[in-house]
Amino acid sequence: MRRAALTRAAFVLVAVAAVGAASLMFYVGDEVRVLRQRLDATEARIAQDREALRVSATEWSYFNRPAKLAGLARRHLALAPMGAQRIIRFEDLPPRRATPAGTAP
Question: Which of 36, 63, 68, 96 has its CA 20 to 30 A from that of 44?
Fold first, then answer.
């Protein structure tokens, strides 16, 4: 009789352990699935950001071509070569105005 009770207790203990292990495996598997989805979404965002950076670098190279910038400067800026009359000696500059104490010039 005592032996049957021990066998029954061992069976119940093994059954509870098996149910617990199965539950743990289900939980871990589900957690792995969720984390995998997050990883896939993050990798997709990284790929999109890399593509956007590549496009931005290409646009930057295109818009900053020296010939294009020179044409824009001629069209939109009234620049002219500096004449000799604009060059003066340092001594001919007006004196610097006094600034209040504690402020930068």
Answer: 63
Distance CA 62, CA 55 (A): 11
Structure tokens at 77: 């800026």
Q: Kindly report the pTM of this predicted structure.
A: 0.51
Kindly state the tokens that stand for 87.
């060059």
Buried b (16+ CB within 10 A) or exposed e, 50-76: eeeeeeeeeeeeeeeeeeeeeeeeeee
- pLDDT in 10s for each residue of the chain, 105 residues: 677 877 888 888 999 999 999 999 999 999 999 999 999 999 999 999 999 999 999 999 999 999 998 889 889 888 888 888 888 888 888 888 877 766 665
- What does DSSP assign to residue 93? S
